[in-house]
């Protein structure tokens, strides 16, 4: 059976936040003090996460799982969870701020993790410090090298672009990606920031990113798949870039994502305003069929699109770190 919503979209990509905690405090994600963390006993255990993941894979043919957070590497013994999920034979990936990778990249790779996205929004030390509120640029750069050395393939770098803040680094990031042999993915700033400073004027649109890069390193489009990134390859064969244009060129029509938060809430969209409580159902003794009913109901209720560009848009109460980006 497939997880199909009322618009005919089939869902095969599960994002799992393993914690809401983080060792960074990125301006566009958390407040300076950090968020009010979820109580530990409220977080799903590895066994509970595995149970939902197994159900999604075995019953609905989910074939792609990404671990995220908060910062997934702050969850103790993460490689144990990776090992359990790798046994499900899915495309297993993780999004991380990269700062712990010099220590854990090899363990995670050995446990069965295959793909890594590392977030990095500035190549300048001062700006990195201002954006993340941590003076850790060198460690993140070492983390990228550690990921490459450990054999992760591909390694992707996620860059959230914000007008007036780091939009002068578009070409520098393209150059960085070409030199390192990693795929840079530019992400439009989304209204999921804890400080609520988002505004449409802060978004750097896809068109501008593409044009600036094309002027220095000519690019051509790569055929689109259900993946959110609009992809371009360098015409000289030196790799590719991706642009995730959630705001200016939304891809809701082909969205195949479902989400599980660290506290066991199932969500049908990054911008959903409703949580479906799988944790309490599990802890209350629900059978797999009962969990499946909740999941199917949630997917059935998925709306056509996020509507950021409309007056009807309602900002979710959870920010990015509490949903899992
Ligand atoms: N801590 C990990 C990290 O930073 O990669 C994983 C979780 S983080 C919430 C996942 C992704 O969401 C990161 O690439 C981050 O840059 C992105 N992100 C966070 N807040 C965002 C926002 N308001 N708009 C766009 N992307 C955002
Ligand atoms: Fe932490 Fe990632 Fe949010 Fe930055 S974007 S504060 S690293 S969860």
Features:
single chain, alpha/beta, 10 helices, TIM Barrel, globular, 12-stranded mixed β-sheet, 12 strands, binds iron/sulfur cluster, 325 residues, binds S-adenosylmethionine, 17% strand
Structural class: alpha/beta
* Helical percentage: 25-40%
Compute the number of structural domains.
Answer: 1
Output mean pLDDT. 93
Question: Cα distance, first to last residue?
Answer: 27 Å
Detailed description of the structure:
The protein is α/β, with parallel strands linked by helices and 325 residues long. The radius of gyration is 19 Å and the shape is globular. The chain has a single domain, classed as Aldolase class I (TIM Barrel). The protein has ten helices and twelve strands. The mean pLDDT is 93. Strand 10 and strand 11 form a beta hairpin. Helix content is 31%, strand content 17%. Bound molecules: S-adenosylmethionine and iron/sulfur cluster.
Describe the secondary-structure layout:
Elements: E1 13-17, H1 46-60, E2 64-68, H2 78-86, E3 91-96, H3 101-111, E4 115-119, H4 125-132, H5 137-150, E5 155-161, H6 170-180, E6 183-188, H7 206-216, E7 219-221, E8 230-234, E9 240-244, E10 257-260, E11 265-267, E12 276-277, H8 278-283, H9 288-300, H10 320-323
Parallel strand pairs: 1-2, 1-10, 2-3, 3-4, 4-5, 5-6, 6-9
Antiparallel strand pairs: 7-8, 8-9, 10-11, 11-12
Helix pairs in contact: 1-2, 2-3, 3-5
Bound molecules: S-adenosylmethionine (SAM) and iron/sulfur cluster (SF4).
